[in-house]
Amino acid sequence: MPELPEMETFRTILSNQLKGRPITQVEINREKSINLTPSLFTAQVSGAVITDIRRRAKHLIFQLNNGYALLLHLMLGGWMYIGNDEDNPDRNKQVILSFGERKLYFIGLRLGYLHLLTSAQVKDKLEELGPEPLASNFTEETFRERLSKKRGTLKAVLIDQKFIAGIGNCYSDEICWQALLQPERKATELTNDQVHVLFHAIQPVLTRGIEYGGYMENPTYKEDRKTGGYNHHLLVYDREGEPCRRCGSLIKKTEINSRKSFSCPECQK
């Protein structure tokens, strides 16, 4: 599932290529991927101009010049591609937005969605999300205060979108590795120093993920050489049996709350 760095990569690419352009045509191939009838959705979206693209947690918000916004959550298996009739993946596309000859294909929206909402509805939809971990007001004091109320494993805490927004399975493991902590450790077991180290691992890991284009392998457009670049720089996630980049011990794979998790058995305590 795309996490904060993947969605931030999408946001940057789509902003550069689609911001300020009118939507000339709408094609709905799966009604469950949208929240209105296809005719009403199409009527509201066709002709609208994307004035801004923002990210909140794992969501993208396409702001339209007619006062509405498209709220996207890709969920598991979802991705996007910018191309045309000759250049696009041989996959089922649930929604297609055209910008003249250029098209934005929404692929794999079986669990995800693209909803047309008012600004107030978007605010309500995202109201329960936790703070953005890369925001300037996300301080260690804020983190400590929120963490003091949690009783689960670090894995469960970090992927809780009401606790911190945008972190999922991959980056929770990466953060724990960076902080020298096992993801199955209980939040209540951490010392003050360990909380300090954990907090200061979050932003560098996520920033590094953004820098390398996230870990999703599918390109976003034909000449895309950045998306998925983090796959070559993973610290621990999906590296079972490979040597730890810090101590050389073999990475182990475990299951925590029905989620796969990767860690070093030696240098993570």
From TrEMBL:
Domain Formamidopyrimidine-DNA glycosylase catalytic: 2-106
Key words of the record: DNA damage, DNA repair, DNA-binding, Glycosidase, Hydrolase, Lyase, Metal-binding, Multifunctional enzyme, Zinc, Zinc-finger
EC number(s) from the headed UniProt entry: 3.2.2.23, 4.2.99.18
The keyword Iron-sulfur is annotated on this UniProt entry: no
Domain of life of the source: Bacteria
PROSITE patterns per the UniProt record, alphabetical: FPG_CAT, ZF_FPG_2
MF annotations from Gene Ontology: 8-oxo-7,8-dihydroguanine DNA N-glycosylase activity; class I DNA-(apurinic or apyrimidinic site) endonuclease activity; damaged DNA binding; double-stranded DNA binding; zinc ion binding
Substrates-to-products reaction catalysed: Hydrolysis of DNA containing ring-opened 7-methylguanine residues, releasing 2,6-diamino-4-hydroxy-5-(N-methyl)formamidopyrimidine; 2'-deoxyribonucleotide-(2'-deoxyribose 5'-phosphate)-2'-deoxyribonucleotide-DNA = a 3'-end 2'-deoxyribonucleotide-(2,3-dehydro-2,3-deoxyribose 5'-phosphate)-DNA + a 5'-end 5'-phospho-2'-deoxyribonucleoside-DNA + H(+)
GO biological process: base-excision repair
Cofactors: Zn(2+)
InterPro entries for the chain: FPG_cat (IPR012319), FPG_Glyclase (IPR020629), FPG_N (IPR035937), H2TH_FPG (IPR015886), Ribosomal_uS13-like_H2TH (IPR010979), Znf_DNA_glyclase/AP_lyase (IPR000214), Znf_FPG/IleRS (IPR010663)
Family matches, as SMART domains: Fapy_DNA_glyco, H2TH
Domain called FPG-type: residue spans: 235-269
The keyword Glycosyltransferase is assigned to this record: no
Assigned protein family: Belongs to the FPG family.
Subunit architecture: Monomer.
Name of the protein described by the UniProt record: Formamidopyrimidine-DNA glycosylase
